[in-house]
Amino acid sequence: MADDVLYSLEDGGVAVLTLNRPERLNAWNGAIEQQLFGYLDQCTDDPDVKVIVITGAGRGFCAGADMDVLQGIGDRGGQGEQSGRRRRTYDLLRVPKPIIAAINGPCAGIGMVQALMTDIRFAATGAKFTTAFVRRGLIAEHGMAWVLPKLIGPARALDVLLSGRIFLADEAAEMGIVNAVVEPGELMSHTLAYARDLAVNCSPSSMAAIKREVWGQLVGLTVEDATAMSDTDMGHSLAGADFKEGVASFLEKRPPNFAPLARGWATGD
User: Fold this and answer.
1) d(CA 51, CA 97)
2) Was domain 5-183 assigned CATH 3.90.226.10?
3) Strand partners, 129
4) Which one of 73, 156, 217, 251 is least enclosed by Cβ atoms within 10 Å?
5) Which residues contact 216 (CB under 8 A, 6 or more apart)?
6) What's the rounded mean pLDDT across residues 16-23?
7) Which residues pair with 14 in a beta bridge?
8) CA-closest candidate to residue 36, choices 63, 71, 73, 62
9) Secondary structure element (H or E) that encloses residue 33, with its range
10) By the 8 A CB rule, do 43 and 15 touch?
11) What confidence tens digit (pLDDT) does each residue in 86-97 have?
């Protein structure tokens, strides 16, 4: 298996996980998923790892799901490839060590979900963000509808979810999606300095308890229940005509031609 995720252990106990498909802007596929979460499990069990950093190789963080994968799902009528147990994005919340995202470039779709499920996010100046789902005929997948309103409030969350518009790092910081914006050449040094400060000066047991408290005490549906709800909706959307049209219009570089909403959709009539 290719090294679709790279692992290194830096001074002070900071593990760096690098999504490594730079030729595809680190587009998400099954190999990245398996390797990333495998390394997260390894970091959880390794007492030498105090803090985890996730970033992307090349000029992107993660441009969302690989379009070849999405096209294949559409061709199979909404059925994904069965390649072992899928990992839930909210598993990042259960890692008892701080996870920091260093967002070096485009951050879209499921890539943005991964970033939102980390604890701290730093972005390079000019990095582009988009939820993207609605423009592919999809719903807010993988727990995004649970986590995004908790970070930035429902009004701003609905703006970026309903529009699927592209916005830059400075606006992401203004909304509260990222903690700070730094120049591209300084992103990793800034992130690693912050991570090393946590690793050297902060109690691992205290950080684990604080992380559990903050994520565990958010009100409303649990992340498990919210993700289960979105998974049901996602199954319907993956099998729908709008998803096939959303992918086709993207690949053909044309505006989408989505069908009108069916009468009685909300009530199931």
Assistant:
1) 6
2) yes
3) 107, 167
4) 217
5) none
6) 96
7) 10, 51
8) 62
9) helix 30-45
10) yes
11) 788 889 999 999
Name the residue with tokens 């690949």.
251
In sequence order, the 6+-apart residues with CB closer than 8 A to the CB of 35 are 1, 3, 4, 5
| Amino acid symbol at 238 | L
Q: Where are the domains of the chain?
A: 5-183
DSSP H/E element including 31: helix 30-45
Residues 100-145 pLDDT 10s: 999 999 999 999 999 999 999 999 999 999 998 888 888 778 789 9
Q: Which amino acid is at 140?
A: A
The span from the CA of 263 to the CA of 211, in Å, is 44
Strand, coil or helix: what is 119? coil
Residue 218 gets the label, from left (phi > 0), alpha (psi -120 to 50) or beta, of beta
Say if CB 111 and CB 26 are below 8 A apart: yes
Residue with tokens 């992307």: 56
Strands (E), 82-173: 99-103, 107-108, 120-124, 128-130, 167-168
As a whole number of angstroms, the distance between CA 100 and CA 74 comes to 33
Whether the model pTM is above 0.85: no
How far apart CA 245 and CA 247 sit, in angstroms, is: 5
Report CA-CA distances (Å) from 154 to 48, 146, 151, 184, 227.
39, 10, 9, 30, 17
Helix (H) or strand (E) holding 8: strand 5-10
Place of tokens 């970070």: 151
pLDDT at 163 over 50: yes
DSSP conformational letter for 223: H
